[in-house]
Amino acid sequence: MKGIGSQMSVSYKDLCLFPDIKVPVGFKIPKFDLYDGHGDPVAHLRGHCSKIRGAGRKDKLLMAYFSQSLSGAALEWYTRQDASRWYIWDDMAQAFARHFQYNIEIVSDRMSLTKMEKKPNESFREYGLRWREQAARVNPSMEENEMV
């Protein structure tokens, strides 16, 4: 199943890098990184799939535990959904990625980095860290020598 703008897939097989790994008996549900509605939703879906890969293609289980990886606005979105419309994981993942896709669309470009300025209340170190964080989001990725 193709995802946002046919650029990426949000199907389980594409999000989980190792979907067929068998988890030993006694596997405990891991602690999930929380997604609050900021950042790349597809990256969050991939991380979720990686942590719960032992569920295999048990879509209902995948969807049920997905809420444990959400907080804030993302959890509010999840709880407002009609889960009966989600027959498989891909349905839920597609709806989630579509709803939070604006986070992908506002990714920095090289020009926006040249316009970044140090805020009066931040140290040079804080500014540098903020700049590097934005540089890491530039697509296509910047080479190390471009960041110097």
> On the 0-100 scale, what is the average pLDDT?
78
State the helix count.
9
CA-based gyration radius = 18 Å
The share of residues in helices is 40-55%
Task: State which percent range the strand residues make up.
Answer: under 5%
Main sheet record = none
Which outline best applies?
A: elongated
Runs with pLDDT <50, length 5+? none
Would you count the extended β strands for me? 0
Could you give the order of the helices and strands? HHHHHHHHH
Please tell me the total number of domains.
2
User: What distance separates the N and C termini?
Assistant: 39 Å
Structural class of the helices, strands and pairings?
mainly alpha
Domain Retrotransposon gag: 65-146
InterPro entries: Retrotrans_gag_dom
Pfam family, one: Retrotrans_gag
Topology diagram in text:
Blueprint: H1 12-15, H2 41-51, H3 59-66, H4 72-79, H5 89-99, H6 102-105, H7 110-114, H8 124-136, H9 144-147
Structure in words:
There is one protein chain. The protein has 148 residues and is mostly helical. It has two domains: 4-104, no CATH class; 107-147, no CATH class. The protein has helices at 12-15, 41-51, 59-66, 72-79, 89-99, 102-105, 110-114, 124-136, 144-147. The radius of gyration is 18 Å and the shape is elongated. The N and C termini lie far apart (39 Å). Pfam families: Retrotrans_gag. Residues 65-146 form the Retrotransposon gag domain. InterPro entries: Retrotrans_gag_dom (IPR005162).
